Amino acid sequence: MRTESPKLFISALLLAVSFWSLEIPKRAFRFYEKGEITKALEALAKSVEKDSLNPAAYFLYAQIYSQPNLEHYDTDKAYDQVNRSIRQFKTIKNPKDLESLADVMVDSARLEQLKDRIDSLKFEEVKGVHSIENYNAFIARHNDASQVTQAIDLRNSIAFSKASSEHSWQAYKEFMEQYPKAKEYARADSLYRLLIFKERTTDGKLASYKTFLEEFPDTPYLDSIVHEIFRISTATNRLDDYAAFFREYPSEELLAIAYKRMYHTYKQKFGTDDFLDFYPSPLWGDSIRQIQLLEKGYWIPKLTENTIEFLNAQGQSQLKTLYTDIPQRCLCEPITTDFVIGQYNGSGAIIARNGKLLYSGNISDAKDAGYGFIVLYGDEGQTLMHKSGQLIIDQPKEEIAVLNESFIRTQSEGLYGLTSINGLSYLPHAYTRIDTLASLILLEKDGRMALVAPEVLHPALDGETPSIEMAYDEVELLENGRIWVSSKGQEAILDERLRVIIPFGNYEIYDEPYGWKLVSSKGIRVLHDRYPQLATQELQQVKESEQWLATKLNNQWALYDQVGDLPPMTNLDSLQLLGQNMALIWQGNKNWAQFKNGKRIALEKGWEPKLLIPQTYIKTGDPAVNDFFMLSNEKKYRKIYNQFGREILSSTFNEVTALGPNLIRLQKRNAALADSTGHYLLNFVYDGIGSNESGYVSLLDKGKFGVINPTRGINIGPKFDKLLEPYSDTVLVATQGRYKGFVNKEGKALTAFEFDEVTYFNDSIALVRIENEWMLENIRNEDLLYEQIESFEIIDVGEEDKTLFITTVNGQGIYSESMGEVIQPTYTFIRLLGTPANPVYFAVKLVKEANIYVVIYYDKKGNKLFTQSFRQEEYYKIACPTN
């Protein structure tokens, strides 16, 4: 029997062509036509045995095997037979053979039709099973079938359904790798990217977002991821964090949000002048410059056609609004915020100075909270927005406060929590107190307190739970920047970074200029910056002054110089600190007065030591850095020493009083005055010398009064009826009889003595009252500059100028020290708008008969800016209520 190897097949073909005609199993075809299938198969077997080059036999085999109604139905056999027939048919070239084949209905067209039918039958079988394996087998075996495309689609559909059922990024990835041309590839890719994005970032951590973006830079969720990174990494609202974000993730959309935040944070911390130098922007630079320009100066409201218009200090219109009402404080105080608030159509609104509507809603007021935030006040509570227009906290809270650029404190149900500008929470509402303490955050809960560095709370923005130990009962920030804390009866000292300076212990800690003093039942420990050796000693007693530190240990005293270079004095029996400069010391049979420059004066028997503290220090309570030391015997002989131990006076005095650092009053029968060198300024000529008032010492003799001020060269003998009062450096107010007048420093009269009262205005012009009338009088030439003043109020606008609000019988007016009368006193009342240094005056005349208010706005020089007339109900919309 012949095989179909290529060489043998060709040889056989040549022989067949040369010697015999093609085998045609005609009997088998006749049996088939009669429906005698078994006989047909037997005849086919004999025919094929006779000649294996038998395309007609294989064609008939394929026909029989492809009949679904026959018991011999087998599509795989049919497919094998038809393919064999097709292969052999292609080798037949002899026309007679082709004609013979045609006689039994075998030709290329019928063969292809039969093959297509067998492909179709097999495909229906495969669809019935509907498995990836069967479809793959069909695709591989029937690779030229018209159903291959459909089989691939069906197979891919099963594979995608399987991946969808598992619904994991791994399943979709496997599907895409196996079936890269599947119609479902795009859907699988989308789901793969979504699921791997969700899985890798399900913890919501900043690191997860960053790592994912590094691994999948072309992810379709790029914008979403960058927004999340922005939300977490810039929630601190710190300038450096914004800058770091944009270095890594440049985004114009997010920069538009961040740039305005950065501006307001920078403005709060450093001012606005150099913001654009540090953070230049070609996109928003011009906008920032316009904002900076509009922020300068204050605004005042003006009612125009029943709506509020805002003006600058020059009366120029800056912003017209639809507001019909504004908060009372905006009527009474200059508006310095970079936004204005008001009401219209029953709703509140906030408008920036550049005219941009920031907010509109049900609010009654809004206040600048700092760092670009605005607290909104509504019926249900407080909410928070940013001046960029973003609503930060939209759910009403009982209280909202911005602690700094990073931390926003909110109160809910009486408890406090901390949140951020991006809405991420630092701490839940679980604390009875949250505040700042220096650079730290102070927390209180259940009667205990914690101090937390901001860096400890920042991880909470990334979903971490900060470690907070409620470690303290009390906390206090000391003047030196250190922090005193107590817990369970013990005290400690921390620095601003919470590092321990003094550990917890059973002692009371006192902050001292030299360091620390720790007092316990065991004794006193001194932690001295200059004398560290004292730290190990448990002292019995400690005394201190600015100059000296005295310690008692084992019943022996020691004295330490805290300012100068004197060596410590030890083994002392007793000591007493006198003021800031001296100490009395007893050692054995010796005792002496110790001065800060090292000089000693022996304390002899019969001499009583006394410290003379100048009255000026006693009145102010300031430390007496200059004082005197006096020794007295029983005969009232006195030796007076200055703070350096130099004897400056010695004589018999009834009384010695230090009036000032450079003035000593000496009393015998009469009184004298000496300076700190012992030089007599006044000898014993007057009955008495009074106390020291700002360097002026009153003199009394025979019922008359004088004054001396050595520093200003004033020495006026007693000749006036009452104590003299200083008016300026060279002018005093003196009294003769019932009336006051002005005298120079020699006591010579500068004006008549005719005034009932004198009030200082400036060195050359005084406010003087005669009976019920106040006047402005030039002291030097007695010219009356202004008369008929009933009352006045002085507004100090700086060193070079003052303003008088004056009231006369005709009304109120304004008088300026530098410009004279600014506004005639003809108004019902005048209110200062703006600032004293740069005022706008709101002058009102009430026409009672018509109940009309005429309002004139004046600038600081008295120039009219504009005039308006209002009915009463209109007037109260624009006027600050009077008390």
Question: How would you explain this protein's 3D organization?
Answer:
The strands form 16 sheets. This protein has a 4-stranded antiparallel β-sheet, covered by helices on one side. With 883 residues, the protein is α+β, with helices and mostly antiparallel strands. The longest helix is centred in the N-terminal third of the chain and has 22 residues. Strand 35 and strand 36 form a beta hairpin. The N terminus is likely disordered. The chain is built from 21 helices and 59 strands.
What does this entry show, briefly?
By secondary structure, this protein is an alpha+beta fold. Helices cover 27% and strands 38% of the residues. It starts with 5 loop residues before the first helix and ends in a 5-residue tail after the last helix.
Task: Identify the strand order in the major beta sheet.
Answer: 7-8-9-10
Strand content is 35-45%
| Rg for CA atoms | 53 Å
Q: Helices and strands: which structural class?
A: alpha+beta
Keywords:
883 residues; alpha+beta; 38% strand; single chain; disordered N terminus; four-stranded antiparallel beta sheet
Question: Topology of this structure?
Answer:
Elements: H1 6-19, H2 26-34, H3 37-50, H4 55-65, H5 75-89, H6 95-103, H7 108-129, H8 132-141, H9 148-166, H10 169-178, H11 185-201, H12 206-215, H13 222-233, H14 239-248, H15 252-270, H16 275-278, H17 285-295, E1 300-304, E2 307-311, E3 317-320, H18 328-332, E4 339-344, E5 347-352, E6 357-361, E7 365-370, E8 373-378, E9 381-386, E10 391-397, E11 399-402, E12 408-412, E13 415-419, E14 425-431, E15 433-437, E16 440-445, E17 448-452, H19 454-457, E18 474-477, E19 483-487, E20 490-494, E21 500-505, E22 508-512, E23 515-520, E24 523-528, E25 541-544, E26 548-553, E27 556-561, E28 569-572, E29 574-578, E30 582-587, E31 590-595, E32 600-602, E33 608-612, H20 615-620, E34 628-632, E35 637-641, E36 647-652, E37 655-660, E38 663-667, E39 671-674, E40 680-686, E41 688-693, E42 696-701, E43 704-709, E44 714-720, E45 725-726, E46 731-736, E47 739-744, E48 757-760, E49 765-770, E50 773-778, E51 784-789, E52 791-796, E53 802-808, E54 811-816, E55 820-827, E56 829-834, E57 839-847, E58 852-859, E59 864-871, H21 872-878
